[in-house]
Amino acid sequence: MEPGRWTGSAADYARAASLPNLLQGKVLNEHVEPQWSSDGTRLWYLWQVALDGRNEVCVVDVHTGESLVDNDRYIAYWFWNVDKWNGNIHDVVGQPGGFAYTTYIINGGLECGPNPANKESEKSRIANYIKFANLLGVAPGDNLSCQTSAFPPSTPWPKPVTTKTPPSTSPTTTKTVTTSTPTTTKPIVTPAPTTTKPIVTPAPTTTKPIVTPTTTPPPSNQCNGNRNVCFWPLTQQVLPYAKSDCQLFPSFVWCD
């Protein structure tokens, strides 16, 4: 196989292409060009690294290493802590971006966006996340899926800004002055005895009987010659009342 020409599987190419993102960071200072094995089936990435002041070469077999992040703790540490092309996962965990942003940093190129190459992987990732959130008794929160138009984001998640406060050269301690408060004895107040008021029963109410006259008064001599009419002697006026209505008024006279 000629250097620079890939004839392996797509999965092998994806693993090889992801290594620069996994291994770059503070502990790595110089990228060495990839080398090909003699049989043309293995791609080796060589990295010049600084470890304990010595220059050593890190060789990673991306063809036979099916799960480097799972099986190699050093690769896993790099993957977890070093900035990727799309940010650092430590900057987004616990932030408003939600679980979707962590998926974008871990495997955003394959699982995120409106139409990603691998839609099913995110479903399994979200299901496991919800499972462990329930086991821990915490809410999984919102924004679980990154398969939306919000991904990829236009700008990476900003890094938190920490301001260090310089230590004081001459710390001053303030003594607390405690002033004792004199104790005062409150007088004991004895409540006055409670007196029970007598219950007064009201006297029974008596209703006065209504007296209705049962006898017809005798004919009056004040009719002045009027007959079968209701007459009002005070005004000498004949009123248009029937006999029964006329007799309801004491000042009126029914003339027979």
Features:
three-stranded antiparallel sheet, 6 helices, alpha+beta, elongated, chitinase activity, disordered N terminus, 24% helix, single chain, 256 residues, 7 strands, four-stranded antiparallel sheet, Glycoside hydrolase family 19 catalytic domain-containing protein, Lysozyme
What would you say this structure looks like, in words?
24% of the residues lie in helices and 13% in strands. With 256 residues, the chain is an alpha+beta fold. Strands 1, 2, 3 and 4 form a four-stranded antiparallel β-sheet that branches. Strand 3 and strand 4 form a beta hairpin. It starts with 9 loop residues before the first helix and ends with a strand. Helix 4 packs antiparallel against helix 5. It folds into three domains: 82 residues, no CATH class; 70 residues, Lysozyme (Orthogonal Bundle), CATH 1.10.530.10; 39 residues, no CATH class. The chain is elongated, with a radius of gyration of 54 Å. The longest helix is centred in the middle third of the chain and has 18 residues.
SSE order and pairing:
Blueprint (H helix, E strand, L loop, with lengths): L9 H14 L4 E4 L3 E2 L6 E9 L2 E8 L6 H4 L1 H9 L17 H13 L7 H18 L92 E4 L4 E3 L3 H4 L6 E3 L1
Antiparallel strand pairs: 1-3, 2-3, 3-4, 5-6, 5-7
Topology order in helix (H) and strand (E) letters: HEEEEHHHHEEHE
Structural class: alpha+beta
What is the overall silhouette?
A: elongated
Instruction: Write down the domain tally.
Output: 3
Q: Helix tally? A: 6
Stretches where pLDDT falls below 50 for ≥5 residues? 1-7, 21-34, 38-57
Roughly what percent helix?
10-25%
> How many beta-strand runs?
7
Average the pLDDT over all residues and give the rounded result: 70
For the largest beta-sheet, the strand count, sense and barrel status come to: 4 strands, antiparallel
